[in-house]
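Hi support team,

I'm filing this because I wasn't sure whether my run with flavin-adenine dinucleotide finished correctly. The job status page said complete, but I'd like someone to confirm that the output block is well-formed before I use it downstream. Pasting the exact inputs I used:
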Amino acid sequence: MLKKRYLKDLQKIVGEENIYDDKAHSLAYSYDATREHYEPDAVIFPRSEDDVSQILKYCNKHKIIITPRGAGSGFTGGALPKNGGIILAFEKHMNKILEIDLENMLAIVEPGVVNMDLQKAVEAKGLFYPPDPASEQYSTIGGNVSENAGGMRAAKYGITKDFVMALRAVRANGDIIRAGKKTIKDVAGYNIAGILTASEGTLAVITQITLKLLPKPKFASSYMAVFKSVDDAMNAVFKSLASGANPVAMEFLDSLSVAAVKKKLGISLPENAGALLIGDVDGNVKEEIEFQLGTLKSSFKENGCVDFEVAKEKEQREKLWYARRNVSQCVTVYGSKKLNEDISVPRSKLPVALKEIYKIGEKYGFSVPCFGHAGDGNIHVNVMVDGSNEEELHKGHQAIEEIFELVVDMGGTLSGEHGIGLSKAPFMDIAFSKEERQLFLDIKKAFDPNNILNPGKMGL
Ligand SMILES: Cc1cc2nc3c(=O)[nH]c(=O)nc-3n(C[C@H](O)[C@H](O)[C@H](O)COP(=O)(O)OP(=O)(O)OC[C@H]3O[C@@H](n4cnc5c(N)ncnc54)[C@H](O)[C@@H]3O)c2cc1C
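And here is everything the job wrote out:
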């Protein structure tokens, strides 16, 4: 419960209609995609950067905890108010595309803009914003920047950080800061926008984002390649990319994932597929499409590909993508609870990483269907357990810990896109040294000395 005095003072800043401390709002803002839940004491819908600044100044003075929130689609609990306090939600007012600058090819947006709304708005003007997390229909640009979200087009175009040119943000004490510029080049001062990207709401509240845009490619096609084994497919991934292929996406499903999709959705997929690679190529001339498909096909064939299918029309392309788009919900055929990690390794390590991950699954007796963004070296590893069995859950977490140790030993990391939040905080010591973690704490202290911004996340 927020003290009545605090509620009254905050109402004076944002108006009574923009602050709620009733049960319905507390419940509605207590969840994210982890399905854990923690209720906030109040939910505030700031109308402007100035509101955010005044709210933070007040909360900093009274040491009231603030958790910024986009759409609450995070997979690691970043937007969950674990320690109570206030949720700052941007979907009601701070949700506008402020500018699409055609001459400089950039967009300026407020944090509550939904990713897909931005994509559509810029495409209507012939431009292109590539980062497209599978949550694009509802996740917000503020959340995407704070988690450094990836998507299906990262193999060619990169991830959110590659498009953030500048940010405006509010520090815990209410100070408004500008980080980065509208310029392509900017080497003056520390890269504060870089530090705030992926900071999961622990350092500052992002109030405005300037994003780079590209020209929209004119042509695109999709492909599906069938491999006898995961090992063949993983070798094909890094060897084809190293040999000059530049696909938009190179997504992977292993045989367990393929079987799960067949079972749950009843669709036909290639028989005896040990693994599938599915993706897109694009370009401004048709010859570029043919060149990319030819390069992929020949490189895949050299690496054990037994079938290579191409789709050029929209309907056919969607058919090829259907299994990949729906696999996440299908793997529950192997267990009621999915311990879903999104490990990332250098691409050349994919074959050995997958081999060792399956061995860990066998050792503990769990199915571990794997799928994901192989072209980025980022794989969704799903340890499937019976969620109602405490002993299995405990063993599942032990398996996850071993998997993390394995990928970090290979030069990889705990998360390629979902972030650390609450779920992965216990594993930070595996990925970072004592000295590195101290540096994180020092940075946190410089931005937020009273630790009011999203405490407990990222192990901070
Ligand atoms: C079905 C599904 C598919 C998904 N697919 C992908 C995918 O392909 N790629 C991917 O990367 N992720 C994916 N995700 C995860 C999630 O959608 C992303 O992490 C997304 O970026 C979160 O955005 P959000 O608006 O929901 O943020 P939230 O979950 O609300 O918040 C995420 C974090 O950002 C912080 N935050 C939010 N707004 C601000 C702000 N203005 N200032 C400071 N901090 C802020 C929060 O405090 C929190 O720590 C998926 C999730 C689901 C449910």
